[in-house]
Structure prediction request, 366 residues.
Amino acid sequence: MMTPEPSLNILVVDDDAISRAVLHEHLQAAGHQVRVAADVVEAKDFLTRELVDIVVADWIMPGESGLDLCEWVRHQPCGSSVHFVMLTVLSDKTKLIEAFRSGVDDFLSKPLHDGELFARLRAWTRMVSLQKQLAQRHADALRANAELSAANAKLAELAMRDELTGLHNRREAIRRLYEQWSVAARYEQPLCCAVVDVDHFKQVNDTYGHHAGDELLRRLAESLKGCLRESDSIFRIGGDEFLVILPCIHFAEATTWGRRCGQTIAASPVIIGGAPRHASVSIGIAERIPAMHDWRELVEAADQALFASKREGRIDSTFQRKQGLLFLAAGEPVPAVFESLPTGTTSRPLAYSEAHIHRLSHGKVS
Prediction:
């Protein structure tokens, strides 16, 4: 069974009223939507408002010619998809070649012959149909590519995210460290980084279960994010450890940031086991110095500060220089990561410690 030919939108442009009427009648009888114009000005006005599949225009008309109309059509946004047919009594090969170069697709001889008109109309219909199919396939391909690009971008983002906390992960941390290190080195800007570790996190998991540990990590991630400037970045780099990149600040400012973070965390209870409980963290901070060769040494220095903080395990009310490290805290050692708040209590003494690399030279801490 043959597929019925699609209905096309056709514009007929001819200054001869009889020729217009004949074409209109034949094309409409073939099942197409037909509009007519008496000259190029009228045709342009119509084409600026409506889209058509085929333009059938007389070559020689008063004022602008059919060739002028064809050239104008080809310069319109959708002009390349219009099938342009020229009506002509001319047979000069030079003129016909000129018309093809101007964008004419086909010719129809005048006076009109019914058999030729319908034969060519079938050919035009196939051509327009193929063009529409190709355009649709192109649009489908563009849409599929856009969807694929969006899916790939989403996968790439997921690959850089920690599923539990929503923070960027270790892979993204390495990329950002390299990036920030390069900027700091090139423009001689300060750069600090901090490694944050939850105290006694294993005890939390063992006592209250892994779901409690997960909730603690999520809440700590939120608290840490709240302490950041717009230019800072935070990452979960593994287990209960976070990395914070602090660009364009010196060591003293970074320690102020660490102190503020510790206070924020200490003042933010987490509901575990049906009761509000407080956590403590250790923070190691290091600043980029000329003796460092790359970002790895910066992170290693922050790690050393963190280990020293863990090892110190005791809080003193003043800064102390000890083996090149500065320690800050207040009060006695915290025996456990969580302490239930007594009834009516809304705050508790600061329960965290920090360790900071003060200066690194000649490959050793001093």
Q: What stands out?
A: The chain has ten helices and 16 strands. Confidence is low (pLDDT under 50) at residues 314-366. The longest helix spans residues 114-159. Residues 13 and 37 are 5 Å apart (CA to CA).
